[in-house]
Design goal:
25% strand; alpha/beta; 9 strands; 10 helices; 3-stranded antiparallel beta sheet; 2 domains; Rossmann fold
């Protein structure tokens, strides 16, 4: 079942395209990794999918199962966000703000779901702690719990492991994979093509070459082989 269908999408600013002719479908349960060169438009694509930015051309169609507000978003963290003076519980609860309407307070069911998502991320012991006192990995778990409060269907993740050490990175990738196994659709930007092909079901590569298909098809494609070789070479 298609949650998102993207047709001939062009992205950019002030009429200047940075990515063109993007066509792909995201079905319920998919794990789509968006990869490509720096500056190829990956974050711009995320913002466009979230309707935070208008496309230059093309359209984004949402399935009947995907309602407004059903997309959770984990953006790249800024220094200001990392120093935010609020408790873990307060930040996770803020994931419901888009649904409050005129209500001034969170209701009982929202508080219960926030608690469950905090437990799901393994940070129940941190719920009263100040967010800015946490490690980078702990902060990302908090933001994932917050995103889960916004949706139970689809998560958009922009470089969720950026700046994390290798062990915490592996833990974060496993958390995201477990969420996908539980039925949450994932769209994730990653600069790590090796991790992308390890965890994802589909790959969207944007840049000078555009590719969309299954992860297996990407690994066998010319662009996939090239970039996988390039990354391996850079790690030697």
């Amino acid at each position: 079942m298609a949650l998102l269908t993207v047709k001939d999408l062009s992205l950019g600013y002030d009429g200047q395209a940075i990515a063109e002719h993007l066509n792909f479908i995201v079905n319920a349960g998919d794990y789509l990794c968006v990869v490509g060169e720096n500056g190829s438009g990956k974050t711009t694509l995320m913002k466009t999918l979230l309707h935070l930015q208008e496309p230059l051309h093309g359209e984004i169609l949402t399935g009947e199962e995907l309602k407004e507000g059903d997309i959770g978003y984990l953006p790249q963290q800024t220094l200001v966000q990392k120093d935010f003076p609020a408790s873990v519980e307060e930040i996770v609860l803020s994931g419901f703000q888009g649904r409050l309407g005129l209500r001034p307070f969170y209701n009982r069911s929202e508080k219960e779901l926030a608690k469950k998502n905090i437990e799901r991320m393994g940070i129940a012991h941190l719920s009263r702690r100040c967010y800015r006192e946490l490690s980078g990995g702990q902060q990302q778990r908090v933001l994932l719990a917050r995103a889960l409060c916004a949706t139970g269907k689809i998560l958009l993740l922009d470089e969720p492991v950026a700046g994390l050490d290798p062990m915490v990175t592996a833990e974060m990738y496993q958390l995201i994979k477990d969420l996908n196994k539980d039925g949450i659709t994932i769209i994730m930007i990653s600069h790590d093509i090796g991790a992308a092909v390890t965890y994802s079901s589909h790959i969207l590569h944007i840049g000078n070459t555009v590719f969309f298909g299954t992860t297996e098809e990407y690994v066998e494609s010319e662009v996939g082989r090239f970039f996988l070789t390039q990354q391996k070479g850079g790690l030697q």
